[in-house]
């Protein structure tokens, strides 16, 4: 050990290794209960002088944020020790060693902290947690480890028999009466990442005050092992088809025009891809039970954490849906949909009237679903002029305001929340509480109760391809989004229209709204410092103009006191919203789950006639692209 200590001290003195990295290496090797192979892996990295790799792995301890953990589970440099019996194949035998990576050490710490918090919150009650995982590398092993830690501490653990989606995990927490849930996933991140996503007893992601409470408990944990096992261990329960069927029934309750769907069988066809993820468990059966004709991209059916057929398992990228589009062309299908590894995000490609295929954005998908569901609820008399004020759309501040205009046209309110579906879930919890709690009411009776006593949730979404049509889950649900968009497509097809026709009709009525997301990635310790510097610069050196537009107003979500349309205080978050001249907007925020800073650009243009719509679209999109180009030039100056 002395040789290793000396080598680390020399590296710190020469500037090759951060002092915090050295201290965290000592902590892991001396206090955290590390295994022999972990020690040998660190020694290998030191002996070969991989200082950048060591800094990235150890410059901090992976933070348990308000939603949980997310980070690399494989290093950029994979040691021979970590490869182990796997040789050169991926994944290696062991996840990466480090305090700032997803591995057994951090999974155990997070689980211990969460369970300890639950014991404090529910004294005298038998605590239970539900665990699920996606198809990523190490996901099953991490989920099983979390279950072992849970039962060692004296709580019960429910574990799905195999991979299941994030929304089903959210559903299962309340269905099983558990106090919390954990999803092992990194959503649509690259294959080298994984994560630990925590949910509370309401099925929603952790929000205050529970988020801070869990974080404080996690910070108290100093070992990757349970140091004081309970005298009476908890029980591990395996779950599967019973919860699956209950979840599928809840999703199916979202269908508004079942007869129309059945009438379009064979006329409106769908291609679906799970992109090697959990969507295969639910989507085909949901569609087939409703009468849709659907084919699956077979080469992407198999669970595979390497996602070998795509550059990224992110359905918002056209490339990820390319195989589906090719299959749709061969089959003459009308709609291609794909879900990410944990099936909480959904992307789509639509066949136009001329037979071409066009990808639609998250904002466009959400707008179609919001407008369609409002239209059908009013057409069926479920919503009317008398009760419209008790219905709502919910969206994030960085989601298109077209949805707000649509809601306004129906007399329905629209709630803006911070980015992250946990805030939409929190609003649903508020509405349920105001109605006196759901109990065992049917979806129809519960809807009536909400319209009488509280607020009925019509639809919620965020621009990053997340959507929900019901409060049976408290997170975004790609399985449900597939079913809702399929229904909208089939209904429009019965009228001789396409989803693109429907969008254009909305633009002609409300104006053309366009948005652009610009993302910059800064990885590792050095990247984290750049992101911090950049965000701070927008507060300390607020621009007076942006891309030729005057900055008319700035909302600082970290400092300003802001409230939603219900009067509820918006939590503080490091995000800035710049209101520009000519109706343009720019929002800037750091990603909560990835080493990225995000820029959201918004614009609107009036449309006088259908003949000029194409020109209006092109011109506005060009202006947003120009804004992004000029923003990148400004960023280079700010981080220089």
Radius of gyration: 25 Å
Which CATH-level-2 architecture of the largest domain?
3-Layer(aba) Sandwich
Number of helices: 21
CATH overall fold name of the largest domain: Alpha-D-Glucose-1,6-Bisphosphate, Chain A, domain 3
CATH homologous superfamily annotation of the largest domain: Alpha-D-Glucose-1,6-Bisphosphate, subunit A, domain 3
- Name the structural class: alpha/beta
Overall pLDDT: 94
Topology:
Elements: H1 2-14, H2 19-30, H3 36-47, H4 51-58, E1 68-72, H5 80-83, H6 104-121, E2 128-133, H7 139-152, E3 156-160, H8 166-175, E4 180-184, E5 193-200, H9 210-220, E6 236-239, H10 241-252, H11 258-263, E7 269-273, H12 283-290, E8 293-296, H13 322-331, E9 335-339, E10 346-351, E11 357-360, H14 362-379, E12 391-396, H15 402-410, E13 413-417, H16 421-434, H17 443-453, E14 456-462, E15 466-468, H18 478-493, H19 499-510, E16 512-521, H20 524-540, E17 545-546, E18 549-556, E19 575-580, E20 585-590, E21 596-605, H21 613-639
Parallel strand pairs: 2-3, 2-4, 3-6, 7-8, 7-9, 12-13, 12-14
Antiparallel strand pairs: 1-5, 4-5, 9-10, 10-11, 14-15, 16-21, 17-18, 18-19, 19-20, 20-21
Helix pairs in contact: 2-4, 6-7, 6-9, 8-10, 14-15, 14-18
């Amino acid at each position: 050990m002395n040789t290793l200590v000396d080598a680390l001290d020399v590296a710190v003195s020469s500037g090759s290794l951060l002092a915090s990295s050295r201290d965290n290496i000592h902590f892991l090797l001396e206090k955290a209960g590390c295994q022999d192979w972990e020690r040998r892996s660190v020694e290998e990295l030191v002996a070969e002088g991989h200082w950048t790799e060591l800094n990235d792995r150890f410059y901090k301890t992976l933070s348990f944020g308000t939603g949980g953990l997310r980070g690399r589970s494989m290093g950029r440099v994979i040691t021979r020790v970590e490869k182990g019996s796997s040789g050169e194949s991926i994944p290696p035998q062991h996840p990466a060693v480090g305090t700032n990576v997803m591995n057994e050490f951090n999974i155990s710490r997070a689980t211990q902290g969460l369970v300890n918090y639950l014991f404090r919150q529910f004294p005298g009650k038998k605590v239970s947690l539900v665990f699920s995982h996606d198809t990523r590398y190490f996901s099953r092993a991490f989920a099983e480890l979390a279950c072992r830690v849970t039962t060692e501490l004296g709580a019960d653990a429910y574990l799905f028999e195999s991979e299941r989606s994030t929304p089903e995990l959210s559903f299962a927490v309340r269905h099983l009466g558990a106090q919390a849930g954990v999803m092992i996933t990194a959503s649509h991140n690259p294959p080298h990442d994984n994560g630990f996503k925590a949910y509370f007893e309401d099925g929603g992601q952790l929000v205050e005050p529970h988020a801070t409470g869990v974080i404080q408990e996690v910070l108290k944990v100093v070992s990757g092992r349970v140091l004081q096992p309970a005298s009476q261990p908890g029980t591990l329960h395996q779950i599967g088809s019973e919860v699956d069927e209950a979840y599928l029934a809840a999703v199916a309750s979202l269908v508004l025009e079942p007869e129309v769907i059945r009438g379009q069988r064979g006329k409106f066809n769908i291609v679906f891809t799970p992109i090697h993820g959990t969507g295969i468990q639910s989507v085909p059966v949901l569609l087939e039970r409703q009468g849709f004709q659907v084919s699956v991209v077979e080469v992407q059916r198999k669970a595979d954490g390497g996602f070998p057929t795509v550059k990224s398992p992110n359905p918002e990228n056209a490339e990820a849906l390319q195989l589906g589009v090719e299959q749709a062309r061969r089959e003459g299908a009308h709609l291609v949909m794909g879900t990410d590894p944990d099936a909480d995000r959904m992307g789509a490609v639509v066949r136009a009237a001329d037979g071409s295929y066009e990808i639609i954005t998250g904002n466009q998908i959400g707008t179609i679903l919001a407008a369609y569901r409002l239209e059908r609820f009013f057409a069926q008399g479920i919503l009317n002029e008398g009760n419209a004020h008790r219905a709502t759309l919910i969206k994030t501040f960085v989601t298109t305001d077209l949805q707000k205009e649509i809601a306004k046209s129906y007399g329905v309110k629209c709630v803006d929340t911070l980015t992250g579906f946990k805030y939409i879930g929190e609003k649903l919890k508020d509405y349920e509480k105001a109605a006196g709690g759901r109990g065992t009411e049917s979806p129809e009776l519960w809807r009536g109760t909400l319209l009488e006593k509280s607020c009925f949730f019509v639809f919620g979404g965020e621009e990053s391809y997340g959507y929900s049509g019901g409060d049976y889950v408290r997170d975004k649900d790609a399985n449900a989004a597939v079913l809702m968009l399929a229904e909208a497509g089939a209904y429009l097809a019965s009228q001789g229209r396409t989803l693109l026709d429907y969008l254009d009709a909305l633009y002609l009525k409300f104006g053309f709204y366009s948005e652009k997301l610009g993302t910059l990635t800064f990885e590792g310790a050095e990247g984290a410092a750049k992101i911090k510097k950049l965000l701070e610069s927008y507060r300390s050196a607020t621009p007076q103009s942006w891309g030729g537009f005057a900055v008319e107003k700035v909302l600082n979500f970290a400092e300003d006191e802001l409230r939603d349309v219900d009067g509820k205080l918006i939590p503080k978050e490091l995000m800035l919203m710049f209101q520009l001249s000519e109706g343009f907007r720019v929002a800037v925020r750091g990603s909560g789950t990835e080493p990225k800073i995000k820029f959201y650009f918004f614009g609107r243009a009036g449309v006088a006639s259908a003949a000029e719509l194409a020109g209006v679209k092109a011109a506005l999109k060009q202006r947003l692209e120009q804004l992004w180009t000029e923003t990148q030039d400004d960023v280079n100056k700010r981080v220089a």
